[in-house]
Structure formats: structure tokens, C-alpha cells
Amino acid sequence: MDVYLYVLFLAVSFTASVAGAICGIGGGVLMKPLLDAFNVLGVASISFLSGCTVLSMSCYSVVRAKRGKDSGIDRRIGTPLAIGAAAGGVAGKMMFRYLSDRCADQDRVGAVQAACLLAITLGTLLYTVRKDQIKTYRVRSLAACAAIGVALGICSSFLGIGGGPINLVVLYFFFSMETKTAAQNSLYIILFSQVASLLDTLASGSVPESHIGALLLMVAGGICGGAAGRKINERIGADVVDRLFIGLMVLILLVCAYNIYQFF
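Request: output the structure for the sequence above.
Response:
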């Protein structure tokens, strides 16, 4: 692999993880479509690399917040959500393998992922812009939390994005969380779903062809980006986080539209 590609992997993983740690979207929702757009590896390989990077970033962010005693994670809600997301993560990975096995053209798989992500991102953007006018709820049922977590885990693993903006919308709407609290709980959910997804991939022997150098660089970029994003998040207000989140959604929509065109 050429040197410039290693630089690309490091730059994308670091930048996406900074944004992901600030907004609580994991970074994969930006990382995956960006790497797809550069078309440097197959869809399955990019999903795997993105998932590993998101796992490293979310693990660092959650552990660092816990050790710093400034964690905003609501464990009564977050834990059943996270357990459900772990189960959903395995289901989502199985769905992705099923689609890949049934579709000889891997570009078509990438197009399906890009189209699904575009639809989810558009819905998230519309909700975020109008969220002050939308009634929210305070779900407390453990069974309902687990069911919601399963749905989040399926989306994150199938799309290879870790968690993404849909986590925040769900936490806003169903649990009435404010922006920064939702961001921390989102990373907690992402951690569980990505651990389950990775273990399922290893257990099934379905690890795609990847470059170990790129993987190590992306994991390092994810951890460093998570550290930088966490420090930035501590120094800015919720209104700034919201504006950054909206800007990222617009960028992701544009990249997804390009990827659909490219894959088809």
C-alpha cells in the first residue's frame, strides 16, 4: 500500500473521531462514507476498519470519563440500551454478511449501505433542526430500553458506522436527554455494540482482507481523536455541539449521495 494511503487512513480516522467524540456519534458515520468515497478498499474491509476504529475511540472516551469521575452515563437506562445494542450488533453483522454473500457485486452492497445511511441522516437532520418543537418522552421500562438498543445495534453494525447520529435522536426523543449527556450515553451504547460485532466477526471467521498497518494507524487515530474531541467537548457549549452536529449531517448527506452515484 502506498504511503499516501496510510496518511489518508490516519487523517480520516483522527478527524472523524474528533468530531465523533465531540458530538457522541462515534466517528464511523463520517469515517465509513469518506473512505468509501476514496474507493481505496472493498466495502467489507472498510466496514471492518471503521468498526475497529470506532471501538477504540468509544472505549477510550468511556473509560476516560469514568476515571475522571465526570461521566454523564445514566446506567439505569444506558445499560439495558447497551446490552440491547450488543445483541443488535450481532444481528446487524449477520444481515451484512447475508447481503454480501447473496450479492456478487460488492459495489451494490456499498450502494445499499450508502442509501440507508443517507435516509437515516436526512431524518436525523430534519429532527435536529426542529427538535425544540417536538415532544419528547422519558422511557423507563427496561424491556423498552433493551428493544430500542437492539434497533440501534442493528443499524450501527449493518451500516458499519458504529452508532452515528441516530443514537442521539433516539436519546433526545425517547429519554429527553440534553446534548452533552446524550453524547456520553451514545458512546457507551456504541462501545457495547462494537464489541459484540467484533467478537461475532472473529468467531465466525469472517474477518475481511485488510492491511494491518492501516488498522493500527486507524486505531491510533481513533484513540488520539477521541482524546482531542473529549477535551474540545469540555470547553464548548451545547449550542456549539448542536451546530457542529448539523454541519456534519450536511457533509455526510453529500458524501452519501456521491457514494450512491459512484457505486451504481
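DSSP finds ten helices and no strands in the chain.
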